[in-house]
Amino acid sequence: MKEEYKQLLVGIITNLDYNPSILASIHIKNVFDTYGIRTIDLSLDDIMSDKVSCDIVFNVHYGEIGDGGVMSGILDDKGIAFVGNSQYACSLMMNKVVSKMLFRKHKYLTPLFWYEPNANNPDDILIDNIEKKIAYPLLAKPVNGAASENIIFIKDSEELSDFVAKYRFLIDGGYYFFEQFIQGRELSAGYVDAIDELLPVVEIKLKEEKYQSQKVKFTKGLKENIVPANVEQKVYDEVQQIARDLHSVFHCDSFSRTDMIYEEKTGKLYILEVNTNPGLLETSLLPLMAKAAGVDENKFFVRLMQHSLQKNET
């Protein structure tokens, strides 16, 4: 640890209305406390007001503002060094419909989807259009959703009819899109510029639920993270390489985590999303991958900070 780093003030932008954000902030503070590095909690208002001065910022303000590039854009405009990706990368990947179209453009498989805001069709026509595009079961997902929030599993026509009747205003308003549900093994791989190597692949095994809802993601005991994932070496290598390639293709320059479904019966890998602001809790996947790669948990955060400070100087 360079002595100069002990003179730094590290800001942590937190959403106090969201528990995972608070827990991530506490974890980062505890890490830097072990090195004698000072930290300060910041809100969006603090950043906008220019009242607080710090040397570098960790953004754990999850949701559209933190994940969608708004925070990155603000920090970049103000010349504040921060751990994270550019506004461009974050905004592209936050919009799930745009990102899925980009996956297709770059010849990657992604589950079939339907998105048609302001359709102006009666409910039965809208339902028929969805059913022509996607077979059951399917998922209703927020276009700009984060942390698996408000995802709904729809098993048949009756459930789709009920969903449309209840949430038609959100479909027309562009909040929801519909995605094919693919039965398979959920695999996740990350890439971190500060480590600059392919990280171990994680398999997320659900105990009861069919899909990874927000409840599953943040409730202890509902899933098991297996690292390294126990899949064929060819598949394992492909998952790692896809994560590295997508990190590059979408101009990520800090870290990213790519989530996929491996359909064993066909041998196909489907891209679900590229997360440009992955969780930094103690139990989050990206720190877990780094730890499995032999990177000390505390040093992982220091390396993120070092890389971002160097990036800001260029």
UniProtKB/TrEMBL annotation:
GO molecular function, one term: D-alanine-D-alanine ligase activity
Any one annotated GO CC term: cytoplasm
Record localization: Cytoplasm
InterPro entries (UniProt xref): ATP-grasp, ATP_grasp_subdomain_1, D-Ala_lig_Van_CS, Dala_Dala_lig_C, PreATP-grasp_dom_sf
Stored Pfam families: Dala_Dala_lig_C (PF07478)
Domain ATP-grasp: from-to ranges: 100-306
Gene Ontology biological process terms, A to Z: cell wall organization; peptidoglycan biosynthetic process; regulation of cell shape
Keywords, ordered alphabetically: ATP-binding, Cell shape, Cell wall biogenesis/degradation, Cytoplasm, Ligase, Nucleotide-binding, Peptidoglycan synthesis
Coiled-coil zones: none
PROSITE patterns listed in its UniProt record: ATP_GRASP, DALA_DALA_LIGASE_2
Cross-referenced PANTHER family: D-ALANINE--D-ALANINE LIGASE (PTHR23132), D-ALANINE--D-ALANINE LIGASE B (PTHR23132:SF23)
UniProt record similarity statement: Belongs to the D-alanine--D-alanine ligase family.
Name recorded for this polypeptide: ATP-grasp domain-containing protein
Organism field: Candidatus Azambacteria bacterium RBG_16_47_10
